[in-house]
Amino acid sequence: MRKFLVHICLISTLLAGAAKAELTIEITEGIKRRPVAVVPFGWEGNGQDMPVEVAQVISNDLTRSGRFAPIPVDDMLQKPTTGVDVDFDDWSILGVEAVVVGRVTQTGENAYDVQFQLFDVFGRDQLVGYRMPASRGTMRRVAHRAADMIYEKLTGIKGVFDTKVAYVTAEQRGNKRWYSLYVADQDGENEFKIMEDDDPIMSPAWSPDSRRLAYVSFDGNRSSIRVQTLRTGNFIEVSRKPGINGAPAFSPDGRQLVITLGGVDGNLDIYVLDINTRESRRITTHRAIDTEGSWSPDGRYIYFTSDRAGGPQIYRVAANGGEAERVTFEGSYNARPRLSPDGLKLAMVHLDRGNYRIAVMDVQRKDLLVLSAGRQDESPSFAPNSDTLIYATRQNRDGVLESVTADGLIRQRLASGQGDVREPVWSPFQRF
Amino acid sequence: MSQYKLIAVSLCFALLGGCASQDIPDPDPTDETYGSAGGADTDGYGSGGLGEGEAIDYDPTAGELAQIVYFDFDSYELRPEDTDIVARHALQLADNSGLSVRLEGHADERGSREYNIGLAERRAQTVRRLLLIQGASASQISTVSFGEERPAAFGSNEEAWAQNRRVEIKYTN
């Protein structure tokens, strides 16, 4: 299949040091990118510039979704900032389906009002209009919120522009390799390092309230599982048993972790750990490798990887234990199961004719769709809208991040400029 | 239990004896230097003089003792040529109860990261079992699996992968 390549560079200054976020959007043929217009927002403030170019943020979000092609500002015949000034004929001539207008008004020293309206050009009607308070610190999120509402109105799919991604990087400094855990906005902005170590860090997992991350540390050459609160940076060590402590994932209620313990004899099994009491319950007892547990969104099942049948395949077991049931049968290697938040799709690493790729299985119909095209793709993680996944792939020697829609039609590459990037995990929806 | 261990240790010595003797070259009768130190410089049968000879002690600390053993693709079996390395470490541990080791298991980069933690742990456990069976005690050994997180060689090719499928034997005191 022939592919169109669209390269878009988004250069921006981040709060934590200047860094460059480069984004490549790769769109498979067949997707028509819908023409829309995001008119530069009006600004009423005392002297200074608008703290965040809200229209630019919305426009970039819509572009990055791969489903929309905002027209250049220079092509616009008018630049209205409120609905009453929109001349539908002007936009009709340009072939634009929808128009976004808005304005930012300063209401206090660090207080602003952000308002936007979305119009259907052919229907000559407003689809959504909203006003939100903002500070300088929250204005970017408010812009992503607006983009989420616009995206949902136009596609019927919930937007995930106001979400975050956590990931791990590795870089060589002198003769040591340093590992860092980062959290950034899903567009690569506001990247913050939340942990750094010269021993490996791996397997980050979001809590359902997106306030904490669980991950594996190898500090002191021993594995342990930590739960770190993002706001404070404080972490607690919830498991540090002899042998393997790995693969944490939060339960839907946020109170428990499914983890892998190996013990002194190295028999990896699935356990459920109560974060408060630190009591753990053994879920599997097989002598094979049982690992990479993750909950079904309804909390009833734990899906995991096991090589009890020879190669790795995906199984599921009731969350309170019992007999495991094999889930995958296609191919010789299926690992790292992650269910979509709507429970309908199961993402995994699938060996596809010699290549490790991201695949999604329809839970009802059981058919498998390979979504990625690399040789060593890994760590699939669903966006909270169940429509898009993020995963790691290789570019030359380094890991880079890609995202793909669950139907495989839109694939994008996101490089953070941070060396070898791996293990991306998409946050749940955030609350204000 | 201790009886079992004793048998295991003697088995180990038998094994080591066999291996060690391979390192001593057999005398080559066609070598002109052979026998020349024996005294009489004469031709003919019996004139070489074999002398008394002497027993050789096996010194487990002699020579460079490798700290890393490598594994084949998808394999958790020690390579036959590495059994000697592990045996010598076992002997050191058995002889010095104050010593302890950390076995660091590693995998190549292919496939899922946490699953690779499991595969690398299997390699570390292979070495652990061999150390235990040959006289080391459980309290002297800890294992840690780094999976693919700490590669010894970079690159996505068979050569790099072969160097990364390994167990490192590290003395912690």
Overview in brief:
The complex is a heterodimer of chains A (432) and B (173). Chain A is mainly β and 432 residues long.
The major β-sheet of chain A equals: 6 strands, antiparallel
Instruction: Give the total of beta strands of chain B.
Output: 4
CATH second-level architecture of the largest domain in chain A:
6 Propeller
Query: What does the overall shape of chain B look like?
Result: globular
Beta-strand content estimate of chain A: over 45%
Distance between the termini of chain A: 42 Å
Spatial extent as radius of gyration of chain A: 23 Å
Strand order of the largest sheet of chain A: 1-2-31-30-29-28
CATH topology of the domain at 68-171 in chain B: 60s Ribosomal Protein L30, Chain: A
- Mind telling me the CATH superfamily name of the largest domain in chain A? TolB, C-terminal domain
Mean pLDDT of chain A: 91
The quaternary organization reads as heterodimer
Percentage of residues assigned to helices of chain A: under 10%
CATH architecture of the domain at 68-171 in chain B: 2-Layer Sandwich
Number of helices of chain B: 4
Q: How many domains would you count in the coordinates of chain A? A: 2
| Rg over CA atoms of chain B | 21 Å
What is the fourth-level CATH superfamily of the domain at 68-171 in chain B? OmpA-like domain
Distance between the termini of chain B: 26 Å
- Major beta-sheet overview of chain B: 4 strands, mixed
Walk me through this protein's architecture.
The complex is a heterodimer of chains A (432) and B (173). Chain A is mainly beta and 432 residues long. Chain A has two domains: 33-155, Rossmann fold (3-Layer(aba) Sandwich), CATH 3.40.50; 164-426, TolB, C-terminal domain (Neuraminidase, 6 Propeller), CATH 2.120.10.30. Chain A is 8% helix and 49% strand. Chain A has helices spanning 54-64, 88-93, 139-155; strands at residues 3-10, 21-28, 34-38, 42-44, 68-70, 98-108, 111-120, 125-134, 164-173, 176-185, 192-197, 201-206, 212-217, 224-229, 235-239, 245-250, 256-261, 269-274, 280-282, 290-295, 301-309, 311-318, 325-326, 334-339, 345-352, 355-362, 368-370, 378-382, 388-395, 398-405, 410-415, 420-426. Chain A has a six-stranded antiparallel sheet with strand order 1-2-31-30-29-28, with no helix packed on it. In chain A, strands 3, 4, 5, 6, 7 and 8 form a six-stranded mixed sheet that branches. In chain A, a hairpin with a 6-residue loop joins strand 22 and strand 23 (325-326). In chain A, helix 1 crosses helix 3 (139-155). Chain A is globular. The two termini of chain A are 42 Å apart. Mean pLDDT of chain A is 91; it is low at 1-22. By secondary structure, chain B is of the alpha+beta class. Chain B has a domain at 68-171: OmpA-like domain (60s Ribosomal Protein L30, Chain: A, 2-Layer Sandwich), CATH 3.30.1330. Chain B has four helices and four strands. In chain B, helix 2 crosses helix 3. The model of chain B is unreliable at 1-47 (pLDDT under 50). At the A-B interface, loops of A face helix 3 and strand 3 of B.
